[in-house]
Amino acid sequence: MGRFRVSRISRDQVAARIRPGVTDGPSRYTAPAAATAAEGWTLSRATPPSRLYGANGLRTGRNGRLYVAQVTASQISAVDIESGAVEAISPMGGGIVAPDDIVFDDAGNIFATEITLGQVSMLAPDGTVRIIQGDMPVANPITMYQGRLIAGECRIGARIMELSLDGSAPRVILDNVPMANAFEVGPDGKLYFPVMGTNEIWRVSLDGGAPEVVAGNLGVPDSVKFDSRGWIVTTQVASGEVLRIDPVSGSREVLAQLGPGLDNVSFVGDRIFVSSIPGEITEILGGGQVRPVIPRGLQWPLGLACGADGTIFVADGAFGYTLSDCALTLAGMIFYPGSPGYLRGVVAAAAGEWIVTTGLGAVARYRPGAGESEVLATGYDQLMGVDLARDGAVVFVEYATGRVLSAKDGDVTVLASGLDKPMGVAIGADGTVYVAEAGRVVKIEGGKAQTVVDNLARPQGLAASGDRLFVVDSVAKTVSEIDPVARTTRVIATNLPVGAPAGVTPRFLGAIGDMAGPMIPFADIAVAPDGTLYVSGDAEGSVIALRAV
């Protein structure tokens, strides 16, 4: 477990301090000031900070560094393969939005597929950005071959196209592909690509024509690259295997088992590097041995929930984890059987069972250990927080429409409407429903929202414990304790690693086809049975523990 260094300062101000730079290693987030806890509270990390905001497309630059596309941050970074040092090349808030894969041309331009915008853009060395091709839903794979730019879509019915750099119409090489992903032209001049929907690798002539199956019965391949011998190296997102396949004989070997979530491959000379969606970069050394360049981390996290046994569930978008004894264990992911989809809000139900809201607008009962989920309600627009009433009703908030809803026994009722982008929801000991919306926390009575406290910036996660509420403010970067009867607040932690970095306006991340709806940040808070508060440190990709002393 990583802990922040604690120092004693003024008793009437703060008692614990998180010093910027005193971490379990480098963080993707630079804090503008020390995070502090009020007198009577301590701060620690339940998980270390993340180095990247995820790791998707991977390419080797002419300088020998690995360039990493990070969808969730709209960022492209360069990584030194020896030191692991990270430099933002196209930073969060910049001109490239949700890059999923990248490729260079000989002039040093970076071409990026912007998966949520459905387009391909070019980032020039001088920092200017221009759109090369629009109308590419779920734009994902991209490669360059002898000056020809080829890109594709990761959706059912996908197209693979050769794009023009002069603004003329693209040429379709192949269409009706069941989810193409990262690809490359092989030594024979044909395009080799993973087909996630069929669990196969195909190839096709660049002039078009019928595709051929090269390999099947894989672990859901999501990249195909070629080593110096002309053999395929491919990552398997579901099984976590890195495979080498002879494209002629079809023989295969497992180079490494890295765990689910693998995304892409690149080479520095004959050295093999692999990216994993949760922000991990690994070198494959041979003989099953690996070297971590950047360790796996959390992409956000989003919703948090605490079970009766103290186990914490961490909703991290495409991944769900349990956190116990300061160790994260993968509970499920979007490609696993029984997954309800992209996970956002969560609340504990029975042992081993969680109620979640998903990026595609559903509320589901999720049993990751059994690989099962049951949809309780669906068809909603941008769901956020969720809580469970004593009578079994599931109360959830719909961010886009401003509604608070309750689902029970197959029926859904509207508790209130007209709220301003509600996010967190908590049910008090007396059954009162509280909601965090823009600028304030309200309680729902008689179908109306009544102010409990206002003058907040952007309250998000909300939790109830005894006669108190606790709320995370992602703009003020605080956690506050609220007395809902007296309608007073007390800030108990400040300068937390939540929300966007100072001076940065993150780009809106829309849907990724039918895999995930809009990826809206949600810094949550949950209360453990022992009274510990757990906070989503989404700015740095950690879970923060706040304890009373």
TrEMBL record:
PANTHER family: BLL1406 PROTEIN, VIRGINIAMYCIN B LYASE. This is Gluconolaconase. The lineage of its organism: Bacteria, Pseudomonadati, Pseudomonadota, Alphaproteobacteria, Sphingomonadales.
